[in-house]
Write a structure and sequence with these properties.
six-stranded mixed β-sheet; 10 helices; globular
Length: about 240
């Protein structure tokens, strides 16, 4: 049975006095992938920010590898093995691609050669500065930089948002390789629900800050009523189930 990396237990969290998440519980074992789905404003990004320590945790706990990290400072969580790619990407605009990748690197299987093999575009632009990259290249760089910290769990917050279809295809292929060939553990927050379900093994769906559905991703793709009710995704929009 896989080791349990993260346990989110009865979490109620938000910003100041504003509650966004209410009684959220789930687990992420090592080597598995989880999609977090829901319409805009239901708490998906807040969940990621809560795991990384940037919200007000009113109740509940976060347990990482058996150790409670509920009150651990945000800057200490990456050192424990939590990797995060924010919606804003937050690359270093004045540094080159290679400098962005090496500035926070830690020893492990993900090194320059590995991330350049995963993202050939970055290898081609290794000397370009961050502000000279396209939006898609910046997203690849943000993911690659997170991988260079060699995290045990990678959190991707809307990695496909606003990108051209060809870039979406490249990033989708890279994420599939990460979870399939490389066995990476990840939480994927994504508006493209059909793509997310094809890339992950398990899914939770949020509605008004609560989990209203949990199950296997490929099974969820076969539930048209649920897809329409909570995601606004009709069966005709969905590809055949083909994920893990």
């Amino acid at each position: 049975m896989p080791d349990l990396l993260l346990a989110v237990r009865n979490v109620r969290a938000g910003y100041g006095e504003a509650v966004v998440l209410d009684d959220v519980s789930f687990e992420v074992p090592s080597g598995e992938s989880l999609a977090v789905l829901g319409r805009n404003g239901v708490g998906k990004s807040t969940l990621v920010l809560t795991i990384m320590g940037f919200t007000t945790l009113i109740r509940g706990s976060l347990v990482w590898r058996g150790e409670e990290i509920t009150h651990l400072a945000p800057h200490r969580r990456p050192r424990r093995g939590l990797g995060w790619v924010a919606q804003e990407r937050e690359i270093f605009a004045s540094l080159s691609v290679e400098e962005n990748l090496t500035v926070a690197s830690r020893p492990g299987r993900w090194d320059l050669a590995a991330v350049f093999e995963l993202f050939p575009r970055l290898a081609e632009r290794r000397h370009a500065r961050g502000h000279h990259l396209s939006g898609g290249e910046q997203q690849m760089l943000a993911i690659a930089r997170a991988l260079m910290t060699n995290p045990d769990l990678l959190l991707l917050d809307e990695p496909l948002e606003g990108l051209a279809p060809i870039i979406v295809e490249e990033l989708t292929a890279a994420i599939r390789r990460m979870t399939g060939e490389q066995g990476s553990t990840l939480i994927l927050v994504e508006q493209h629900a059909d793509i997310a379900l094809g890339l992950t093994e398990h899914v939770i769906v949020l509605e008004r800050g609560k989990i209203v559905h949990r199950g296997r991703s490929r099974d969820t793709l076969r539930e048209p009523v649920l897809l329409d009710r909570y995601l606004g995704l009709t069966l005709s929009d969905s590809p055949p189930a083909s994920g893990p």
